[in-house]
Amino acid sequence: MAANTFDLEDKESKDVDERRSSRCILFFLFILKFILFLAFLYLFICSLDFLSSAFRLLGGKAAGKVFQNNEILRNPVAGLMIGVLSTVLVQSSSTSTSIVVSLVGAGLLDVKTAIPIVMGANIGTSVTNTIVAMGQITNRREFRRAFAGATVHDMFNWMTVIVFLPLEIITGYLFHLSEVVVDSLALEAYADGKKDFLKVITKPFTKRIVQIDKKGIQKVAQNQDVDTLLKTCCKSKTFQNFNETFVNGTSYTLPSKKICVQECEYIFKDTTLSDSEIGGILLVASLILLCFCLFVIVKLLNSILQGNMRKVIKRFINYEFPGRCGYFTGYLAIIVGCGLTILVQSSSIFTSTMTPLVGVGVVSLERMYPLTLGSNIGTTTTGILAALAQDADKMRNPLQVAFCHLFFNLSGILLFYPIPFLRFPIPLAKFLGKETSKYRWFAIMYLVCMFFLFPLVVFALSMAGWKVMAGVLIPIASLLVIVVIIKITQVKKPSILPTKLQNWKWLPICCRSLEPVDRVMNMFCCDRCTSIVDDSDSDTDEPESKVNGTNDQEVTHV
């Protein structure tokens, strides 16, 4: 009997030791995974920097030359589309906005001409997180959520432009509002400065690969000759009253002279490759690095965020204030998104980092939306800082443009956020996410059409004149409005519609479904490139509860 008791005690002690050791192993594995997550997140952010550098080398000069033609830019629609295309080319709204601000400061653009361009820059910057969302294309559910989380930014920017560009053309409210604000400021009291906290972390690595002269594109826009956009001098010194002695012994005192005292050192510095060739290499390498890092990050997140850990983090991020205060939770998210974007000085990096979290289901689309809105506000600080970097006597107009950018985003938020019914970008993003989960090629088609073909077509129509553009776009826009109204009525109150309009079955299938296009795509692509057939995965996620005071509510995903 005593022997059995000792055996039981030994067995229990062994079980306790095994549980302790297993907990220690799990803890160390968690720490290791978290460290790996941070490491690949760092590389992911660096890949975005390389991607931006690649696009600047490939299209930076072209983007700069676009800004030279003032006659084209005076057409507000053309200016809008140039803002979109130039921002897509340089992969940075901060860069394109800074170019516009510097041109206004140099007197090459007036404020009214610059306003549509910064509106277009708002749209172009959202292409990065749309590209990032495609990194989760292999998983239907994650891809649907990630693509919706990325395109909610697109939808907000496009809808804000559709509403406020015509209003600005008719009334000039942004111009007049910013003029009042700038006139009330004592501009001489402001000093230039810029804090870019994220660059402090990533620059030690990225600067060893490639360095871009940020002022190069601005010089091209100002019609100055620029041989390369690569940075050659990292540190220069200005010598005052520079003395020069010639062979005949004559000495002259020359004006101040700027001399490079430290040349830049990086991998692509001494190559014989052109900017375009280096940009192409960087583009391929950065996309490979981005996709690989995104793949590993998603796998690590799925591994780390399991069981109770996943539920706790999800509840914390998607937490709603209790009771009636829950309405104000989104505004706190806007402030958080704004603050984080100011810290990293890039809305693209912030939204691109959040997109995978939406994909794995940690952040809901409803929470991503206000974070994105806050990011839109935060990114306007770059233009304000660029304006403050101008000379005091030239600061007024650039600062007015920067404030126009800020008030434009605030106007969109005031229209499309306070009233839940008017948060149209969310259902539109859900629709796009659903379509991409059915047809993978739709994501690529959306990317090409929304950020390249559509801006180019509208730009061409605007160049043909207002009558031609109105004759083409107004009927199309009217048809879309009618279709949307009928669709909403079909969902909300179909009984008031004629029997035939209560559904779209009377239309040919090519007018109400992408299946015919999908069949054509199947002829040219493999199955992995086209529709996703996965009967085990439903179109909607199972509802998951979240903490909201004392009541349980559902977190609605895409």
From TrEMBL:
Membrane-protein topology: Multi-pass membrane protein
Transmembrane segments: 25-51, 113-134, 155-175, 278-305, 326-348, 368-389, 401-419, 439-461, 468-488
Keyword Zinc-finger: no
Keyword Ligase attached: no
Region feature (Disordered): 535-558
NCBIfam families, per the entry: 2a58, Na_Pi_symport
Pfam family, one: Na_Pi_cotrans
Similarity section: Belongs to the SLC34A transporter family.
Biased composition (Polar residues): 547-558
Subcellular location: Apical cell membrane
Alphabetical GO biological process terms: sodium-dependent phosphate transport
A GO CC annotation given for this chain: apical plasma membrane
Protein name, as recorded: UPF0692 protein C19orf54-like
Keywords tagged on the record: Cell membrane, Membrane, Transmembrane, Transmembrane helix
Molecular functions (GO terms): sodium:phosphate symporter activity
